[in-house]
Amino acid sequence: MLRAGVPGGVPEALLALAAPVPPDHIVPQLAGICRLAVDVLRARDARLVLEADSDWRDLLPADGPAHRPSHQMEDASPDGVAASDQAGGRIWVDRDGRLEWSWEEVPVVERALRGGEVVIDTRRGGGRDAPWPVAAETVAVAPLRLQGSPLGALVVGFEEPDRPTAEGRDGLAALVPHAAEALRTARLLLSAEGRAQRAERLAQTLAEVGAQT
Question: Does 122 score more than 90 pLDDT?
Fold first, then answer.
């Protein structure tokens, strides 16, 4: 059941988050999570952060440069190296569907992922974990987990120092499990597609070798 404080019409959008989609619709689906977070929480901005493993890296452009997801932080990635060729790091998704990759850890995100609980940091409170990946007065980072397994995090930035309110925290609590389920579904689809593509390439290679013998 959704908690009080979630705007009308949002329950249907929450339920739709985790609906399976074709692989080429995964990025728009992830961007939709960010947009819904902005709407539900009346936030300034929102981004998803994902572990840059082999499945999620399949979403990145093959020749796209690796770079930081924030104007506030310097790029710590090797120059001229395609993000899809790297191991490790994080993949960031914004509400416009832009994908960005980075080596560098963001303290507020890492604290939420390690602790498994929502972390809220404010500039008025000294910005303990600044710099942040979004321009804001307050940032809330909610780890996305299913059955104890970390899947990523939702990063939400607010213009006001006293946000999120109690109502906003209820909205975030309602959004988190649906966003986590969406990540799980999307990753399963990417993993299955990756296995199918590898099997197809192997079959093609074996056919070519057989034709030469």
Answer: no
Q: Mean pLDDT over residues 179-205, rounded?
A: 69
Q: Return the higher-pLDDT residue of 98 and 105.
A: 98
Q: In whole angstroms, what is the distance from residue 190 CA to residue 202 CA?
A: 18
Q: CB of 182 within 8 A of CB of 17?
A: yes
Is 93 a residue whose pLDDT tops 90?
A: yes
pLDDT at 16 over 80: no
Q: Give the ranges where the chain is alpha helix by DSSP (H).
A: 10-17, 26-41, 54-57, 107-115, 166-212
The average pLDDT across 5-19 equals 62
- Beta-carbon-side half-sphere exposure of residue 15 (alpha carbons within 13 Å): 6
Q: Is-cis flag, bond preceding 150, omega within 30? A: no
C-alpha 201/C-alpha 68 separation (Å) is 33
Rg, Å, the chain Cα set: 19
Name residue 11's beta-bridge partners: none
Cα separation, 102 vs 40, in Å, equals 28
CA angle 2, 25, 53 (to 5 degrees): 90
User: Coil, strand, or helix at residue 63?
Assistant: coil
